[in-house]
Amino acid sequence: MREYKVVVLGAGGVGKSALSVQFSQGIFLDSYDPTIEDSYCKQVDVDGRPCMLEILDTAGVEQFTAMRELYIKNGQGFLLVYSVTDRSSLLELSKLYEQVCRIKGTTTVPIVLAGNKCDLAHARTVPFQEAKHLAHKWGTNSFYETSARTGVHVNDIFVDVVRQIQRRDSASSSSNASTHSASRVPTPTEKHRHTHSAASTIGGYETDRRWSSKRSSGKHSEAGLSTTYSKHKQKKKKAGGLCVIL
Ligand SMILES: Nc1nc2c(ncn2[C@@H]2O[C@H](COP(=O)(O)OP(=O)(O)O)[C@@H](O)[C@H]2O)c(=O)[nH]1
Ligand SMILES: [Mg+2]
C-alpha cells in the first residue's frame, strides 16, 4: 500500500497534536505538552484507494531547527497549522512556508493551511478572509478552519494533502516512482520520538497505531506518554477487538 508522509508544522499550542490525535484516534487531547513529538499511522481510503498516512506531529521547533530541516526533507506533504485565536501563530507560518519551499526547492509543495480552534468563536482574532488571502498568496485553495475539539474539517485537511501528493506524483510519475516505496525508512530523528500503531476501525476508517517509548525531551515526557497510553488501554477494553502493539 502506498505510504504518505505528512508533517504537521506550526507554533506551539495551536493544536498540532490535538489534530493528529483526533484524526488518527478519534479522540480530543485536552492536555498540552509542547515537548511531545509523535508519529501516527492511519490507513484511510481516499477516492476509493487505500492509503497509509504516516503523520509526524512535530514539537519544539524553536529548539531543534536542524531536526525540522530533516522532517521537511523527508516529508511529502505538510499541514501548516495556526490557531484562529492567535494572530502571531499565523504570521509565523510564513517563515515555515518559506523554509519548506527552500528545502524542497520548489513552491509547488503539497501544503494545506489549517486554522485550528474554530470552535472558540468568542476568542477569534484571525478572520477567515485574512488566512484565505495568505493561502492564495501561496498559490493554493487548500485552506480550512478546523477544530480538533469538534472534529470539524479534521479529516478534510489530511485527505486534501494526500490528494495533492497523488496529483504531484501522477504529474511526475516516472521520475518519482522509485522515491515512494511502501516500506518505511527510519529517519535519524526517529530515535527522538515514539510511534503509535494499532489496528482498529474508527468512524469508518481503518486505523493503525504503534507505541514505543522514546520521547524527544523534557521532564513531562513520561507523564505525557502514560496519559496517552492509558487512554488507549481504556479504549482497547471498550473496543474489545483493538490490537495494541507495544
Ligand atoms: N477549543 C479547542 N482547543 C484546542 C483545539 N486544538 C487544541 N486545543 C487545545 O490547545 C492546547 C494545545 O494543543 P496541542 O495540540 O497540544 O498544541 P501543539 O503544541 O500545537 O501540539 C491543548 O490544551 C488542546 O486541548 C481546538 O480545536 N479547540
Ligand atoms: Mg504538540
Automatic annotation (TrEMBL):
Give the GO molecular function terms: G protein activity; GTP binding
Question: What compartments host this protein?
Answer: Cell membrane
Q: Where is the composition biased (Basic residues)?
A: 230-239
Ranges of compositional bias, category Low complexity: 171-183
The answer to whether UniProt assigns keyword Nucleotide-binding to this entry is yes
Q: Which SUPFAM superfamilies match?
A: P-loop containing nucleoside triphosphate hydrolases
Spell out the Pfam families in the cross-references: Ras
Q: What is its main location?
A: membrane
Going by the UniProt record, its keywords in alphabetical order are: Cell membrane, GTP-binding, Hydrolase, Membrane, Nucleotide-binding
EC numbers on record: 3.6.5.2
Task: Give the record's GO CC terms.
Answer: plasma membrane
Chain positions covered by the region annotation Disordered: 169-241
Gene3D superfamilies named among the record's database cross-references = P-loop containing nucleotide triphosphate hydrolases
Q: What class of enzyme is it?
A: hydrolase
Q: Which SMART domains does this UniProt record tie to the protein?
A: RAB, RAN, RAS, RHO
What protein is this chain from?
A: small monomeric GTPase
Organism encoding this protein: Lipomyces tetrasporus
